[in-house]
Amino acid sequence: MKILxxxxxxxxxxxxxxxxxIETDQGIYGLGDGTLNGRELAVASYLTDHxxxxxxxxxxxxxxxxxxxxxxxxxWRRGPVTMSAIAAVDMALWDIKGKxxxxxxxxxLGGKSRHGVMVYGHANGKDxxxxxxxxxxxxxMGYMAIRAQSGIPGLPSTxxxxxxxxxxxxxxxGLPPENVWSTEKYLNHVPKLFEKLRVQFGSDLHLxxxxxxxxxxxxxxxxxxxxxxxxxxxxxxxxPAEMQEGLKLVRQHTxxxxxxxxxxxxxxxxxxxxxNQWIDYIRMTLVHSGGFTHLRKVxxxxxxxxxxxxxxxxxxxxxxxxxxxxxxxxxxxxxxxxEYMRHTPETDAVFPHTYKFDxxxxxxxxxxxLGVDYDEKLAAKWPYERAYLPVNRxxxxxxxHW
Length: 402
Ligand code: EZ4
Ligand code: CO
Hints:
Blueprint: E1 3-11, E2 17-24, E3 29-33, H1 40-55, H2 63-71, H3 80-101, H4 105-108, E4 117-125, H5 128-140, E5 145-150, E6 172-173, E7 178-181, H6 183-201, E8 206-210, H7 217-227, E9 234-236, H8 246-253, E10 258-260, H9 271-275, E11 281-282, H10 291-304, E12 308-309, H11 319-331, E13 338-339, H12 345-350, E14 356-358, E15 361-363, H13 376-379, E16 387-388, E17 391-394, E18 399-400
Parallel strand pairs: 4-5, 4-13, 5-8, 7-17, 8-9, 9-10, 10-11, 11-12
Antiparallel strand pairs: 1-2, 2-3, 4-15, 6-16, 14-15, 17-18
Helix pairs in contact: 1-3, 2-3, 5-6, 6-7, 7-8
The structure holds (2S,3R,4R)-2,3,4,5-tetrahydroxy-N-oxo-pentanamide (EZ4) and cobalt (II) ion.
């Protein structure tokens, strides 16, 4: 089998998605996600101008060699644009392999290791009361694990608090919106949220929280300690992780489990975190870290060090990514949990898919490949629209992490 052609598909059914479609000489095609929120067209150009010409004529079954050709062979390595482009190729090739062999991708990764993939949903509200109402709504939908975020008194906007009830989308059309931040107000507020949730929902529900890279290690230690009575499933991205040693300090101060890595691109971003057992869950995800071929290696390293996976699964990852994540999650032994933010009906219509939510689990579907298609005619109705994630400033105007 040979790769005949490939093209990048760009659509905006409410938000922008970059999809790679690779076609073979046997009529089978594969799909890969290359969406990078706020920098979508950089990946599209990387693929169209620099990667696709190198793919033509190659054997799509040679996923390992093609991966190294694009990573090692490019000389300039790593980074979110490069690794999202490589991921799009890798996902599409595994989709082709599955279709050619007439089997779901999970069977090529070791087969099913569990009957379903436990997912967590996002409950958020303008205050603690409203967040608690949302948590209740998610429990009624069957979720066993719920991420809770709430607005912070005195701050006009907060990460994770949406305008819509079911669909949270942090990117906005036009230029980057500006948010305002206060670490003190945040640290004083969050424990009250989880105190209330434990009183109302008891001990069994898995509760998660995303700090979104906004604390210093010692502040994160304080937050982790103050949340210990409410035994969170995890505290996510407590500090920015360019300096991996920062997590050592967080670890020394709290038994609240730590998850990190949705913005990581390669195994090198997580190497010290994993081998030193400074984290409990690695959040790297297929689309931003080189696809199955690379994430498999990350998961295997993690397995040796008591670290489980918790793949990123926000709405800026397309249904192709979500399907790919489910095939990966159901196959590996050290799966922890999968994030699941529902896409809008418009997005689901562009990407018809076989995965399904059932009583707190997602099931990848039994069809060949990834089980996702792409409606090119419908997608063409929604051309690219410039959109950015917010930027964040402290109360005095200092530029801060978003
Ligand atoms: O802010 O995917 O855990 N989920 C997250 C997401 C990220 C977005 C950024 O594009 O942190 O909501
Ligand atoms: Co996050």
